[in-house]
Amino acid sequence: MIAETTPRDQRRPVHVPVLEVGDPWDLIYAAVLGILPEEPDSTLMGPHEALGGIRFEQIMPVERQSAVGSLDDLLQRLEDSQPMSPRMVSNIGLAAGQVPDISYLGKGMSPLPEPNILRRAAGPNIIVIVSSDSVDDLALLWNLRAAHGDRHVLPIGLPLAAATEQALQELRKPGRATRFGFGGGRCYVTSASLAPEQLADLAVSAKMTAVAYDKILTFGPPPGRSRNSVAHWSQGQAHLVAVSDADRDLLRPVQNFWRQPELVVDVSVRGHLLPADPTMRGAEFGNRFQAGSSQVEVPPVRRLEAVTVRWPSTWTSLAAVAQSRGLRVETSEPGVAAETLIRVIGGVEGIRYLTHRPLIELLYELAERSGMSWWKERWTRAHKELRALAVPEDEIEAAAVRLGRDEPVIARSGEGRALPFHRFAKVFGRRQAAVNWVVWAERHHLLVRGSTVECVECRAKSWLPMASILPPIACPGCGRMITQPYKPDALNFTYRIGEVLRRVLETDSLGHLLALRWLVSLFERHALVGAHPGVNFFDAGNNNIGEADVVLLFADGSLVPVEVKRRAAGADQKMAESLDDLSEKLQSPYDIVAVTQPARDCPELVQFARALPDRPRLLLTDDQLHAEQVILMHNTDPFAWSPQDEVVQMTRQNRFVDLLSRDELTMPMDRVGEELLNRDHS
Fold first, then answer.
1. Could you read off the pLDDT of 472-527 as tens digits, one per residue?
2. Which of 142, 118, 137, 136 is nearest to 209 (CA)?
3. C-alpha R_g of the chain
4. Which helix (H) or strand (E) holds 577?
5. How far apart are CA 178 and CA 125, in angstroms?
6. Nearest to 303 by CA among 263, 344, 246, 359
7. In 3D, which of 159, 98, 102 has the Cα closest to residue 127?
8. Phi/psi at 506 (nearest 5 deg)?
9. Which residues contact 156 (CB under 8 A, 6 or more apart)?
10. Which of 10, 175, 278, 470 has a CA 20 to 30 Å removed from the CA of 517?
11. Residue 462 DSSP SS3
12. Mapping DSSP to helix (H, G, I), strand (E, B) and coil, where does residue 668 land?
């Protein structure tokens, strides 16, 4: 391939340093620059060795140079951009190595564990101290060079005897160490044979950091030829042309070889990540999903055809990650209700139109079973009687919460209250906002519009949805037909809760939706694979080890469970222990507790918070869950406990009403329009 693509005299020379046997730099040169044998591997040439005896010098200009190993000589070879090293030859025509993370801003004060922070901070700026005869150190250096490519001076290796402060100072000079992002550029010293403590003094003297090798080792992408394509996906499948015209031109010289190169297409989809996980790797002859990509083998006979690429759903990815932990997953009843609502309203973004506390209270009232007012009045009388008997106030309140005084009793399907439009207008305080929201809710089956009909014969009343209000109407009380059920001058509509929303309230999964929407907004650009409401986990014995109200799945294969409570009274020590147990079995880096109350109303929730270096337990309340926009910014803590007062809450509610007043809630969310049109230009 090399001989066919470019004439020999037009190729860059290949410099191959040859060191004396026993030179302590010999294997370091080999790991950093690579090696080039005298002849290509004869097994690549065919069964009859038609090209046997060919030498690399016949294909490209090769200079084998005698050298004495030293840092100065190695740096000179790495900084000379004209000749190629043997490693570069092996990647001709291929993109190799990863680029530094330019989004790295430095180590901040994040409340979340950051297992890859040192790897991101180091980039290619790594010096491996190689002990004599340490194969581990050489393998570490080889893999780091493969991961970061040959465009940088670093990573580099130093024999232990040559690892001096002066040598390290030479390596951290600009141009050798790579600057990237706002915080990248510091050099890191590591070794597989020496502990960081053994290197600490040397590293500090050179203004570097000594780290364990497993904190910065990465393997990077495999060498390949990358391109972007547009694909149409249907039911998790797409058809792509695997080999481009340029690829075919490159491969043309080997198309008649006895042993052709093996081609594998790695497909990644922008905005749709896959977790790194053993189960996701699949089998040799089945679907494989490694390093965040879908792998498809391309046999020689199909290199002119389109190949089928498969992409797993986020639920399949979640099930695979759980299986790697010896667990099985099922959607719980609240999860089914929440997923159904998300699908009905067109996606997670639509949950935003439910983040209004007065509206939520009205929806619970709409879904309550008849007689709840009587129930609450009876509780009020009992409260007064207990107070008259000198029962302490805190004991009365604790008993009331425990016995469900404040918990709504959701009506069964087909029942519930019917409320007129003016109740929605009262909640929003603005008619246009109420009109827009009710139209949106009715369109997505969260509300059902209908009218009450009264029989003139038996006076029985019945509520009928719009689809059933055409006369004549059969009276459910006496069975007679009502031919004129409505007044001649008016038809008064009322609204009942839609079944999809009623099920969410009945299963107490509205909080699941609010937490899911906030967390997806926070992490959607930060390696989030997917979020699922209501997931049960079962062990190998089919025992339910716990239910997560929301589960977050990240690209590194980590799972984060979220526990959601309507009121802080539901968050107790038993809940904390159950969540600890589930987090332990899921190997979670942290977990989250969310309560759908303002923070100022549940100060007792703080006792369950936990911070690094332990497994963090993060807290969410309505102060966060009702936020308009959520952004994860450097050096900020979106989970910080900072109770909002009523003025801030009222301001937020007014902005929500403003949004409803000017937006018909029928089009995709226009963040740009909101920002431009909602500014104060005074």
1. 888 877 878 877 777 777 778 899 999 999 999 999 999 999 999 999 999 988 88
2. 118
3. 33
4. helix 573-586
5. 6
6. 263
7. 159
8. -65, -40
9. 32, 74, 78, 126, 127, 128, 141, 171
10. 278
11. strand
12. coil
50: nearest Cα among 304, 257, 200: 257
Q: Quote the DSSP letter at residue 410.
A: B
Query: How far apart, in whole angstroms, are the C-alpha atoms of residue 34 and residue 77?
Result: 12
Q: What is the pTM of this model?
A: 0.84
> What does the alpha-carbon distance between residue 617 and residue 608 come to, in Å, rounded to a whole number?
7
Amino acid, res. 18 = V
3-class SS of residue 122: helix
3-state SS assignment for residue 544: strand
Residue 192 in tokens: 């597989």
Cis before 155 (ω within 30): yes
Give the pairing of strands 126-130 and 156-159. parallel
Tokens of 603: 């100060």
The tokens for 95 are 């993109």
8 Å CB contact between 585 and 545: yes
Q: What secondary structure letter does DSSP report for 283?
A: -
What's the sign of the alpha-carbon dihedral 131, 136, 139, 140? negative
User: Chain centroid to CA 64: how far?
Assistant: 49
Q: How many residues does the chain have?
A: 682
Output the DSSP codes for 143-201. Answer: HHHHHH-SSSS-SEEEEGGG--HHHHHHHTSBTTBPPBTTTB---EEE-SSS-HHHHHH
| pLDDT, tens only, 299-357 | 765 566 778 888 899 999 999 999 999 999 999 999 999 999 999 998 999 999 999 99
Distance CA 629, CA 30 (A): 52
Kind and range of the H or E run holding 306: strand 306-310
d(CA 162, CA 74): 13
Contact 247, 174 (CB under 8 A): no
Beta strands 481-482 and 494-497 are unpaired
Burial of 181 (0-12, 13-18, 19+ CB in 10 A): middle
Given a contact cutoff of 8 angstroms between Cβ atoms, the answer to whether 268 and 292 are in contact is yes
DSSP 3-state of 48: coil
CB-CB contact of 229 with 240 (8 Å) = yes
